[in-house]
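Escalated from tier 1: adenosine monophosphate holo job.
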Amino acid sequence: MISVEEHLATILAAVRPAEPVRLPLSDCVGLVLCEEIRSLVDLPGFDNSAMDGYAVRSADVEGVDPAVPGSAVTLPVVGEVAAGGVATMPVALGQAVRIMTGAMMPEGADAIIRVEDTDGGTETVEIRAGAAIGTSVRPAGEDVRAGAVVLEAGSVIDARRVALLAATGHGDVLVLPRPRVAVVSTGAELVAPGQPLAPGQIHDSNSHMLEAALTECGAVTTHRLTIGDEGSEVIRVVEELAGQVDAIITSGGVSMGAYDVVKEALRDSGTVDFVQVRMQPGKPQGFGTVGERRVPLFALPGNPVSSYVSFEVFARPALRTMMGLRPAGRPSQKARLTHQLDSPVGRTQVARAVAVRDDAGWHADPVWGQASHFVADLSRANAFLIVPADVTHLAAGDEVEMWLLDGDRARLTAWPADAEAEGAGGAVGAAGSSRGLTHVRADGSAHMVDISAKDVTAREASAAGRVLLSPQAVTALRSGGVPKGDALAVARIAGIQAVKRTPELIPLAHPIAVHGVSVDVDVADDAVQIRATVRTADRTGIEMEALTAVTVAALALIDMVKAVDRHARITDVRVVAKSGGRSGDWSES
Ligand code: AMP
Ligand code: MG
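Tier 2 regenerated the structure:
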């Protein structure tokens, strides 16, 4: 057996950056620039207006001041110029030209009066504010001078740099290209997703996962094949692909079973080695080069989690190296475990976890299913935890090395970010951990977060929601024609009553003294809008009470109108505003 580091070193020694190619901007996002870029133009290219308004000579508006009555001046408008137009008429003393944002400054003019400071006239214009020379004028070359270096070789191209490249006149640039990669799933049991399964068959998830992972890392999947368990087919496919692509990734057929076809077929090629890596998951690995062009081939294990972990640990760094991207691997950082984690002796464990960050740093909650066939738990995870080979046990609270898999994608963000009662647990729950309840201790007992040390603060929360109704139900509500009586009044009362019951209904809500509740209902053409505002002075927030009020008011309304509308529907229940407490004030708009 070899270590993860040894196997990775073998792989990285065998790959090198590709030859640069010239590509149009639209193909360059995420690629490394291989040339120094100089601007072909001045930016702005000419003096132009920063505002819709009037180009004038500053001297003509001297002393004009909105605060000084009678100081306005009226000038004849001698022309008009829009963006893309050329100002033909010079602005002489005592004249103005109507001008739009981005339009070229007319000769003679030295300042812009915003349209808001005028009467907007087209024949003559009354000007109500003055402007010093240069006001609202964007001078040529202010941003970038023609010939100036705007990007160094080695820059990674992103949307902001595409803006700069385009603005400075570059339609294509020299970059390291995306590796073209072929993905081959092996296994007689595999059926394409979307197709029915016969007994014993499974859907081929690896080839789709690998294609997606390749896209995420900037490479392109040129072939995605699913083949059976025939050695001859493996050899034929690999030989054919080796002439067409920059890398090949296979999955399955590399372990110890009777049909470990990839290993058997390629072992004799002499250029692909099959090794046991001290790692879990992902022990069996194959790597080598194939064909005349010595294309790297990664033979990954078949279990979906092993396959994904192997891609991340071995193939992704190789592909990033081919693309010139640094660092090749995921940056590693420290996280604290929310639960204990056991790890096999003598193997580097790559555990999957849900990671969230709060003021104290990153917390990682290992997903429940750590076996290599748990795809659902894999998909919940947003991080790998790297447990060294010599560590067999980590306790809750211990520090662990972590690789974040999703950059800044939304699932990392905790919302609602109410750090008060929920702590990181709200976010862990939101991210979907199967056991990530901060309110359940390691021994399984439930507890309520202790808030006694917090300050008592005046707090208010508002929630809103809607009950969608038929036109008949709306008419009945408006005319007081609901057979059961005043449905709106009942809904309001139900909402208020419900607030007082919230801690009984919501397991982890603290009982708090409710100081005020208002429930408002408003009949619109297709719905009743419900809004509840709840107040307290306590140590924890009152959002759940506001949500309960809206929800129960909506339910009561549905009960009241069900004789006239069987299809009434509750929608859009949410917190719309809150104030007070340590997490600060917030409102939806
Ligand atoms: P193997 O290494 O080929 O024996 O595969 C190990 C396990 O992974 C078996 O349970 C296979 O059915 C499963 N497996 C192999 N390839 C795939 C695939 N492309 N998609 C989903 N599961 C797979
Ligand atoms: Mg197989």
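The mean pLDDT is 91.
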